[in-house]
């Protein structure tokens, strides 16, 4: 599992992905660890098959009992099917996930971790000394869906928004935005069902100060690529399965 | 390891299903034994010897129903137990892999505590599982013995029926059907016992 530190000042953002041991037919995912003092949060920690390499990678940065929070942007297996395993190793952690998915996400196995539902309008969470914001991104691509924004590091974890289907050894960062479009287009057109939801999200996101945007699949957007993405996404017609 | 747990869970669920079928036959058996008693009463003094036998049928059928019920619950417990063991063994397996992968990780020893905790839980689950399996085996044997007893009684009652004159035909027919039902239950129990061989 490759790891890259994206921000390391008062607190730290680390992105994990491109696991060389990943089974061939599952989609490559990005996982994120944010650490602050003796507290850490894992964002979309991944599927069951990724649990062992993810845990091993995480232990390079934090002691196990420092993982006090887990965030799941929505209910999908590539996001959180490892929950039943994390439940055994970090039994005192809290899971932050849209309220809508509680009855579904619990099917992944949850005997110890506490489910902390996120209300539709979002909210904030303190992890160590930092405050993170849950930004609503409903219907993009799940009916209850959130992004995570850190106003100090100016980083947005955008879940499936900005995602691209990539080769397993693709770099973490976008170099040429135009080259990235082909890898993103169908994903957004098909998985995002609502133009109205898309415009609502863009309106919210344009108000934020973002240096880095991290999707759950594909490459990260830095600097002007963030704005390029918002412009491109704004013009894109989504929900193409309905002809 | 996980494969065994999966087999155990499936075998226990299959036993529960066999027992459910056995229980249904035992209910029919209980009705037949009541019918037998009614005929014996009508036959009066000619069938005095059969009255005890009819009561015996009834008792054995009722006991079989309640045994089958309790075994059914037990089999479902075993199935749930196997799934818990299975899940724990998956966690343990993943933690072992993580431990190996985390060769250079500063905090890799953090997970050894969880690993030993889960190992201990597995030991205790294994012990409980062994106990449950033994109890289940004993209860299945008990039903098997009941069915053998019913079989013997059916043969005896056919011999006794000779003395009942006009009721002989009915009683023999009834004893035959009771034997058929007892054999059906025996088949379900035999299948359960052979399934039990998988988890053992």
TrEMBL record, chain A:
Every Metallo-beta-lactamase domain range: 28-217
SUPFAM superfamilies membership: Metallo-hydrolase/oxidoreductase (SSF56281)
Pfam families, sorted: ODP
Source organism superkingdom: Bacteria
InterPro entries for this protein: Metallo-B-lactamas, ODP_dom, RibonucZ/Hydroxyglut_hydro
Protein name: FprA family A-type flavoprotein
TrEMBL record, chain B:
Name of the molecule in the record: Methyl-accepting chemotaxis protein
The species this protein was found in: Alkalimarinus alittae
Lineage: Bacteria, Pseudomonadati, Pseudomonadota, Gammaproteobacteria, Alteromonadales
